[in-house]
Design brief:
alpha+beta, two-stranded antiparallel sheet, 5 strands, ribosomal protein, Large ribosomal subunit protein eL28
């Protein structure tokens, strides 16, 4: 099916749609939706090519979705566990086809920043 047809079917009838009081937007919890907004541009279900970034115990997990092959083989997953800068750079290399490359880099950088342990600076008494 085409992306537009899939979006027409799932835009109002999806188990992943979430709403919050006081906020006019509708959110989505589906995989491959980097912004978590219910829209055709960011939908992971309606787009044939998509990317997902999630946290791992050490590093980030990058999943990419292709239209080639059966749905079970359409998702490729890679765990990036290098230093923070190297993880984001390798993410950019792995996802060259994605139109959401910058957004995926920002999300990966945020996950990596959250995993860096902060060193305590001893207080000096004056």
């Amino acid at each position: 099916m085409s992306d537009a047809l899939v979006w027409q079917v799932i835009r109002n009838n999806s188990a992943f749609i979430r709403t919050q009081r006081g906020i006019g937007k509708r959110f989505s919890t589906e995989k491959f939706n980097l912004k978590k907004v219910n829209s055709p541009k960011y939908s992971g279900l309606a787009n044939k090519h998509a990317i997902d970034v999630s946290a791992a115990p050490k590093g980030v997990v990058v999943s990419t979705k292709n239209e080639k092959g059966r749905p079970a083989k359409a998702v490729a997953t890679a765990t990036l566990s290098k230093t923070p800068v190297a993880s984001v750079r390798s993410l950019a290399k792995n996802t060259g086809f994605s139109k959401f490359q910058k957004l995926a880099q920002r999300r990966a950088a945020a996950y990596v920043r959250s995993q860096v342990k902060k060193t305590k600076v001893p207080k000096t008494e004056a």
